[in-house]
Amino acid sequence: MTKFALGQLGDIEIKQLKIFKAVVESGGFSAAETELNISRPTISNHIAALEDRLNINLCKRGRAGFSLTPEGKVVYDQTSQLLNRLEQFRSTINNLGDSPAGKLRIALSDTFSTDARFRLPEIFRHFYQQAPDVELQVEVDHMKVMEKMVLNNQLDLAMIPYHRKFEGLNYIHLFTDENYVYCGKDHPLFDLPPEQITDKLINSYKLVHAGLKPHEEIYHQLAQMNLSASSYHYESRIAMLLSGCYISFLPAEVARPYVEQGLLKPVAQQIKHFRLGVAVISKKSAQPNRARDMFLHSIRMIHKDSENAPPY
Fold it and tell me: Is the pTM of this model over 0.85?
């Protein structure tokens, strides 16, 4: 019977675990070379040393490809948790003082980076002036992923369309989007006179939706529509609209450049329409984090004249 015994972990073991995690998430040794910027033989030596240290075969590699052993899956899961906790510890300690350092992890929904209403350059500038030593890590992701990551302490804050509310999150409402149904110039609805566009006709055409569980107002709009495709990101939804095969709800500001070019058109604005808020989320019970609090303060300062409450 194999005995597993592990003493204290040092810097060498932490480094090897990081390499192991990168190999797993890259899908193999060759793919991890680019991620880690070290050679495949070096990666192989690190994994072999880690296996010797743990007295466990972590993975299978050969002609059949890369795969984890059952024990390797456990080590990977525990490694992910360990490295995440180490990063949380480092970030929390670095962000306790009046002049925070370390990393601040932020995620945005698509189009927010360049949306003038968000005033993101002003927010970054205001924050940088207060905390120039903080390293910002900013990504674009799916709303469901961002909510989960904030709740799991994998993100410090996120900026999302306000589809729903979780009890474990704080929300800062920023602005409100007016959403209408749009079609592309090659869609049958594009040249149809407004008086001929009825609710029944709109509901007969294939609609691309966000793929989220909507709040009550949006659900009321979608309930009778022909939900035939889903895409969270506006960019891909717009591409589907431009095919002339689908219709979709879009925020007016997101659709505006395409409307001005004559590529998209809002239809039945009196029949199909809803308002959707945009919010910044952070975890209610998160550990003290001076950098996060300062970034939220920057948001409040830049948006101090915004609406006080979401539109529903």
Answer: no
Q: Determine the Cα–Cα distance for residues 92 and 88; give it in Å rounded to an integer.
A: 6
For 44, the 3-state DSSP assignment is helix
Q: In one letter, which amino acid is 56?
A: I
The alpha carbon of 149 is separated from its chain's Cα centroid by a whole number of angstroms, namely 8
Q: Computed from CA positions of residues 229, 234, 236, 240, in that sequence, does the dihedral angle turn out positive or negative? A: positive
The CB-based long-range contact list for 117-124 (8 Å cut-off, 24+ gap) reads 117/174, 117/175, 117/253, 118/159, 118/174, 118/175, 118/278, 119/302, 119/303, 122/302, 123/295, 123/298, 123/299, 123/302
Pairing assessment for the beta strands 273-283 and 206-209 based on DSSP bridges = unpaired
Residue labelled with tokens 């990063």: 87
Three-state SS at 150: helix
Q: Which of 3-12, 137-146, 246-255, 298-307 has the highest mean pLDDT?
A: 246-255
pLDDT band for position 92 (cuts 50, 70, 90)? confident
pLDDT digits (tens, 9 = 90+) for 48-58: 999 888 888 99
Alpha-carbon span 291 to 295, nearest angstrom = 6
The one-letter amino acid code at 25 reads E
Pairing of strands 59-60, 67-68: antiparallel
Residues 6+ apart with CB under 8 A from 162: 171, 173, 276, 277, 278, 279, 310
How far is Cα 147 from Cα 149, in angstroms, rounded to an integer? 6
Residue 17 CA: distances (Å) to CA of 46, 49, 69, 312: 9, 11, 16, 47
H or E element that contains 209 = strand 206-209
